[in-house]
C-alpha cells in the first residue's frame, strides 16, 4: 500500500494518510483505507484505530479530478456509492476508530471524519461542506451524518450556505469530541479511544473536551439520535430552510436536493438518505448549471499556469511599497498586509494617509468582530503597515505599485520619480485599469521591469488580479508578478498589453449599452431587473451609480480612442456628469438616493435628461422587452470577448470567463461570457449578432475569429 501508512504501537493502529501534496481522497485511497481497517480489525494486537494526516493538515477531501470522469448519471451514482461504501466500512469497524484532523477539513475529508466513531481536531482547524458552491450535494454520507452529529438546523446551515465552523464551534455543536494542539492529536485521539490505548500516548497538556471516562466502544454516527430525536425541532429547522430555498435560482438544484436528502434520512432511514444522496448527485451532474460551475472551478485553477514561464525563475517579494493612499491604494496595502508582507504607503497628502490607515484598521476590526481574525493577529497585521510622505523611504522595496489617479501624465510622472529612488532590480508596477503600459513606459530608464497589476475594488476583497505584460517586459518580472498574486491569494489572469485589458475592455461596452437602451426607451429598473434575472448580483445602472458615472465617462475617452468600433457613449451619461449626478457618492445618478441609504429610487432629473436626448436625436421612445435587453447586453460582451481572443490578449478562452466572473459578477452557473456563447451555439450567436448589427449598429458585428470558429 502507498497510503495510508500503517503502524501499530501499544495497542493503537495509526493509519496516517500519505498522498502528497494534499491527501486528496481517490478510489485507490478508499480501497487502501478499507483494506487497512480490515487488517487492523483482524490484528489481535490492535485495540483501537486512529486515522490521521499531519499535525497541520488532514485531507483536502475527494480528488476533484474525479469530476472530469463523470460523463453521466451512472458515473455519478457509481462515484457516490464508492465513497459511501468505503466510509460505511470504517463506521462498521468492530474496533473503535478516531479521526485526528487538522487544517481545513472540507467536503469528503469531513465526511470521512464523520464516519469515524470519535473525532479530535487541532485548535486552528476549520470545518466546511462547500459542495453546494459547485452546484452539487455531498455524496459520501455528509447529508446523513452531519445532522446526527450537530442537529438539523446547524447541519442545514453548513450544507446549504457552505458556512464554515471553527474548532471551538465544532466542539460546542458536537462535531468533534476534543480540541488540542496539533502535536497532541494522536495522544488526544488515544485518550478518546479509552484508557488502555492511551497509556503510552498521555498528552502533555489537557485537551479541551476529553473526559477520563471516555468509552472505547464503537459509536456509529448513523445510530445517533440525541440531536435529531425531537420532531418539532427538526420541523422548525426544515421550515427555516424552506424559506432559504425560495431565494435559490431555479437553475441551481443542489440546495433543494440536499434538503430532500437530509429530510429523507431522518424521516425514513439512514440508508434511504444515502440512496437519495446518490440520486441527487446524479441529478446535479446532469444540469448545465453544475457543469458550468465545475468548469469555472477548474478554469480558475488554470489561470496561473503559463507554459512559457515554466522554466523562468521568479523572485520572492519581501518588501512592498504602494504609491497613493486613495481607496485603491489603501485596499492594495490591506491585501498585502493580510498576506503577511510588510508594506509602506507613500502619499504627499498627510490627511489621505491618515484616512487610509483608518479605513484599513476599520476593515480589519470588522473581520475580528466576524470571528475571521483574532485580536492578536489584528495587532500583528497592522504592524506590517507603514506610511510616509517621504517618497525616498520606498528605496528598499522589491516591488512598488503605483495607485494614483487614472491619468496618463500623472502616472508617467509618478513612475519616473519612483524609478529614480528604487533599486535597479526592483519591479515597478502600475494599477492602471485602462491605460496602455507602452504609453506608461515611455521615458523610463528600465522599461523592461514595468508590469501592470490591475486590482479590483475593493482590492483587499476582490479575488481577481489582472497581470499585464508588455512585449518588452522581462520574463522574470512576469513570473514574479504571477507568484506575488498567489502570495496575496488572488487569482491571477495574465494579459497582453492593450487598453482596457480584459475586464474593462468587455464590461464597459456592456454598461454603455445599458445607456443606449435608456435612449431607446427602456426603463432603468427594467434594464437592471433583466440582468439580475440573468444572474448578475446587480444591474449595470445600479452598478455604475455605485462606481461613479464620471469614471465611466473618463475611462471611455481612452477606450473609444483605442477601439472606434465601440461607438460613442450615450449623451445621457455625459449629461448626468455635467449636472453633477455621478451616482451614490453625490446622492443622485441614474437613480436618486436618500442620505445614508443606497436604495435606488426613480430620479425625475434623469428622466428629463433622457427625454431631452431623445428629442435632440429625433428618436421616439419605444417599448423594449426584457429579452431584447438581456440579448443586447450579454451579446455586446460576447462580441467584445471574441475580439479579445482574436487579438491574442489572453492565453485561453477560460481565462476570459474567469476574469468576467471574478471581476464583474457574471453568473458562474452560466460558465462565463465565452462558455455561455458556446452553450447557446456559435452559429446562433453569429446570427443574433448579425441581426443586431443591422438593427442597432456596427458595435455588434462579429469579428473574423467568431465568424470562422466552429462549435466544438
Write the layout of secondary structure elements.
Elements: E1 5-9, E2 12-16, H1 27-42, E3 48-52, H2 73-91, E4 97-101, E5 104-106, H3 108-115, E6 118-122, E7 126-128, H4 142-150, H5 152-161, E8 165-166, H6 167-173, E9 178-180, H7 185-193, H8 195-198, H9 231-245, H10 254-267, H11 270-286, H12 288-302, E10 320-323, H13 327-338, E11 343-346, H14 350-369, H15 375-382, E12 385-388, E13 399-402, H16 408-419, E14 427-430, H17 437-441, E15 450-455, E16 464-469, H18 475-487, E17 491-496, H19 503-520, H20 524-534, H21 540-547, H22 549-562, H23 571-578, E18 591-592, E19 601-602, H24 604-617, H25 626-646, H26 653-664, H27 673-680, H28 682-695, H29 704-708
Parallel strand pairs: 2-3, 3-4, 4-6, 5-7, 6-9, 10-11, 10-13, 11-12, 13-14, 14-15, 16-17
Antiparallel strand pairs: 1-2, 7-8, 15-16, 18-19
Helix pairs in contact: 1-2, 2-11, 3-4, 4-5, 5-9, 5-10, 9-10, 10-11, 12-26, 13-14, 19-25, 20-25, 22-23, 23-24, 25-28
Amino acid at each position: 500500500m502507498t497510503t495510508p501508512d500503517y503502524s501499530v504501537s501499544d495497542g493503537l493502529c495509526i493509519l496516517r494518510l500519505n498522498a502528497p501534496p494534499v491527501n486528496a481522497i481517490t478510489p485507490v485511497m478508499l480501497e487502501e483505507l478499507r483494506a487497512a481497517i480490515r487488517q487492523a480489525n483482524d490484528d489481535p494486537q490492535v485495540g483501537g484505530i486512529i486515522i490521521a494526516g499531519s499535525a497541520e493538515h488532514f485531507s483536502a477531501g475527494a480528488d476533484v479530478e474525479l469530476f472530469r470522469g463523470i460523463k453521466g448519471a451512472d458515473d455519478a451514482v457509481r462515484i457516490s456509492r464508492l465513497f459511501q461504501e468505503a466510509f460505511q466500512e470504517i463506521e462498521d469497524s468492530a474496533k473503535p476508530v478516531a479521526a485526528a484532523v487538522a487544517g481545513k477539513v472540507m467536503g469528503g475529508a469531513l465526511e470521512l471524519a464523520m464516519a469515524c466513531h470519535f473525532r479530535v481536531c487541532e485548535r486552528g482547524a476549520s470545518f466546511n461542506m462547500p459542495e453546494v458552491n459547485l452546484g452539487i450535494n455531498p455524496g459520501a454520507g455528509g447529508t446523513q451524518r452531519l445532522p446526527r452529529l450537530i442537529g438539523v438546523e446547524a447541519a442545514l446551515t453548513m450544507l446549504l450556505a457552505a458556512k464554515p465552523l471553527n474548532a471551538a464551534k465544532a466542539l460546542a455543536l458536537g462535531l468533534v469530541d476534543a480540541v488540542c494542539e496539533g502535536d497532541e492529536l494522536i495522544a488526544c485521539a488515544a485518550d478518546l479511544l479509552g484508557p488502555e490505548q492511551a497509556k503510552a500516548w498521555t498528552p502533555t497538556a489537557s485537551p479541551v473536551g476529553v473526559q477520563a471516562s471516555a468509552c472505547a466502544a464503537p459509536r456509529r454516527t448513523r445510530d445517533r439520535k440525541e440531536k435529531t430525536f425531537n420532531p418539532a425541532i427538526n420541523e422548525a429547522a426544515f421550515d427555516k430552510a424552506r424559506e432559504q430555498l425560495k431565494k435559490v435560482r431555479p437553475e441551481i438544484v443542489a440546495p433543494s436536493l440536499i434538503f430532500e436528502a437530509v429530510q429523507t434520512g431522518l424521516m425514513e432511514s439512514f440508508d434511504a438518505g444515502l440512496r437519495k444522496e446518490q440520486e441527487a448527485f446524479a441529478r446535479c451532474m446532469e444540469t448545465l448549471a453544475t457543469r458550468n460551475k465545475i468548469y469555472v472551478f477548474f478554469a480558475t485553477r488554470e489561470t496561473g499556469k503559463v507554459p512559457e514561464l515554466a522554466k523562468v525563475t521568479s523572485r520572492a517579494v519581501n518588501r512592498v511599497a504602494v504609491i497613493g493612499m486613495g481607496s485603491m491604494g489603501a485596499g492594495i496595502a490591506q491585501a498585502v498586509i493580510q498576506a503577511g508582507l510588510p508594506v509602506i504607503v507613500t502619499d504627499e497628502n498627510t490627511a489621505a494617509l491618515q484616512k487610509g490607515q483608518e479605513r484599513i484598521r476599520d476593515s480589519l476590526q470588522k473581520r475580528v468582530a466576524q470571528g475571521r481574525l483574532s485580536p492578536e493577529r489584528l495587532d500583528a497585521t497592522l504592524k506590517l503597515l507603514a506610511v510616509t510622505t517621504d517618497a525616498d523611504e520606498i528605496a528598499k522595496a522589491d516591488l512598488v505599485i503605483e495607485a494614483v489617479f487614472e491619468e496618463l501624465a500623472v502616472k508617467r510622472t509618478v513612475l519616473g520619480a519612483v524609478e529614480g529612488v528604487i533599486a535597479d532590480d526592483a519591479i515597478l508596477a502600475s494599477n492602471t485599469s485602462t491605460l496602455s503600459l507602452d504609453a506608461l513606459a515611455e521615458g523610463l530608464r528600465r522599461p523592461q521591469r514595468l508590469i501592470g497589476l490591475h486590482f479590483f475594488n475593493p482590492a483587499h476583497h476582490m479575488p481577481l488580479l489582472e497581470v499585464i505584460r508588455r512585449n518588452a517586459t522581462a520574463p522574470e518580472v512576469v513570473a514574479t508578478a504571477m507568484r506575488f498574486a498567489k502570495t496575496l491569494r488572488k487569482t491571477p489572469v495574465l494579459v497582453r498589453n492593450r487598453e482596457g485589458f480584459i475586464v474593462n475592455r468587455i464590461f464597459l461596452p456592456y454598461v454603455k449599452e445599458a445607456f443606449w437602451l435608456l435612449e431607446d426607451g427602456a426603463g432603468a429598473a427594467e434594464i437592471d431587473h433583466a440582468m439580475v434575472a440573468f444572474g448578475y448580483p446587480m444591474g449595470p445602472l445600479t452598478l455604475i451609480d455605485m462606481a461613479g458615472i464620471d469614471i465611466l465617462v473618463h475611462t471611455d475617452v481612452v477606450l473609444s480612442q483605442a477601439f472606434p468600433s465601440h461607438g460613442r457613449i450615450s449623451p445621457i451619461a455625459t449629461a448626468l456628469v455635467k449636472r453633477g449626478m455621478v451616482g451614490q457618492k453625490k446622492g443622485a445618478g441614474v437613480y436618486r438616493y436618500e442620505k445614508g441609504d443606497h436604495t435606488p429610487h426613480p430620479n425625475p432629473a434623469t428622466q428629463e435628461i433622457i427625454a431631452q436626448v431623445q428629442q435632440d436625436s429625433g428618436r421616439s421612445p419605444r417599448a423594449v422587452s426584457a429579452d431584447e435587453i438581456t440579448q443586447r447586453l450579454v451579446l455586446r460582451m460576447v462580441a467584445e470577448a471574441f475580439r479579445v481572443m482574436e487579438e491574442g490578449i489572453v492565453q485561453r478562452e477560460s481565462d476570459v470567463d474567469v476574469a468576467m466572473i471574478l471581476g464583474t459578477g457574471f453568473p458562474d452557473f452560466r460558465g462565463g461570457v465565452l462558455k455561455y456563447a458556446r452553450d447557446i451555439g456559435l452559429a446562433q450567436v453569429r446570427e443574433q449578432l448579425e441581426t443586431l448589427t443591422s438593427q442597432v449598429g456596427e458595435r455588434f458585428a462579429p469579428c473574423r475569429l467568431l465568424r470562422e470558429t466552429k462549435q466544438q
